[in-house]
Amino acid sequence: MRQLTLCPVLRTENGNASNKTQTLTVYCSVDEAFARPILNRFEATTQSQLAIVFDTEAGKTTGLVNRIIQEDDSGRPRADVFWSSEVFNTIALARRGLLVAHRPSTAKDIPARFKDPDHYWTGLAVRARVIAYNTRKLQAEEVPTEITELALPRWKGRVVMARPSFGTTGGHVASWFALFGPERAKEFLRELRENDVRIVEGNSQAVRAVAQGQADLCLTDTDDVWAAQRNGWPVDLVYPRHDEQGTLLIPNTVARVRGGPNPEAASQLIAYLLSSETERALAESDSHNIPVSESLAAGLESYRVESPMALSYRQIAEHLGPALRASSEILEP
């Protein structure tokens, strides 16, 4: 397991110990209810003081990504660490040269598929992209198990999904472009439009629409389904296939931001976020993120995804821009 001993990280410019409290700036698109306790524990255990900037539900990740870009353009980067709830926009930042290559001390046993080959980001605590359904309207065996079945006539006007411009939905659509090819993916988007798919602002709104009977099915993330069940809503899920591929898993990612003013403290926070303590906390939280650590995942069999998509995140990220443009043109004319 990736254990971590926390210790003070304060240094002066010449490397000597300092009594002055640092302020380490963290940009975080993980839901505050889950991220805040973890960051508070780091803050309480070290002599660092955190300034945490969270994103909104509708603008998940994208708002913070744009902020990092704008601050770099102005020559005044503020963020030291970017803790993202997904991977594809993190890859986009790396491609723009806005992240620092870094090999965290606690990342040695993280599987290679959850690490950037060039060390610009490291993944942990995954969620799955699923089809959620209203259990009062449908039996489990009636729910589509292949993603393209959502465009069948029987589901006309009965499906809702979050706007692809933000959050994990954009990465999911990009995976269709990577798997099916751009032309078939665009045709699938047109089929969804002709089938009267409804677009809402976020995954939680999509699940709420299903729970309230405004739709029968939606595309969403596992954590939104677990939250709905915690609230007593009539919602469950299936893990969809994509032709010969399985279900898309989307990890959290952590990275150091180029130009961040506290590189040493940033490295220690990243090590903590990638530790077994953090993965266990996220797995045991109401979000039930799936650990990338096999030893931790072994104790959470009910949340394991048996057939994950095998495409690399880089392969999918290459299609993110075209996928978002096509989604906007086809689904939101």
Q: What is the terminal-to-terminal distance?
A: 49 Å
Number of helical regions: 12
The largest sheet, given as strand count, sense and whether it forms a barrel, is: 10 strands, mixed
Beta content: 15-25%
Globally, the shape reads globular
Contiguous runs where pLDDT drops below 50 for at least 5 residues: 7-19
SS-based class: alpha/beta
> Secondary-structure element sequence?
EHEHEHEEEHHEHEHEEHHHHH
Number of strands: 10
What would you report as the Rg, rounded to the nearest angstrom? Answer: 20 Å
Helix content: 25-40%
| Average predicted confidence as pLDDT | 91
Structure description:
This protein is of the alpha/beta class and 333 residues long. It has twelve helices and ten strands. The chain has helices at 32-45, 62-73, 88-95, 167-180, 182-194, 203-211, 222-230, 263-273, 276-284, 294-297, 313-317, 320-331, and strands at 22-28, 48-54, 81-84, 99-100, 122-134, 159-162, 198-200, 217-221, 235-238, 249-257. Strands 1, 2, 3, 4, 5, 6, 7, 8, 9 and 10 form a ten-stranded mixed beta sheet that branches. Strand 1, helix 1 and strand 2 (48-54) form a beta-alpha-beta unit. The relative contact order is 0.20.
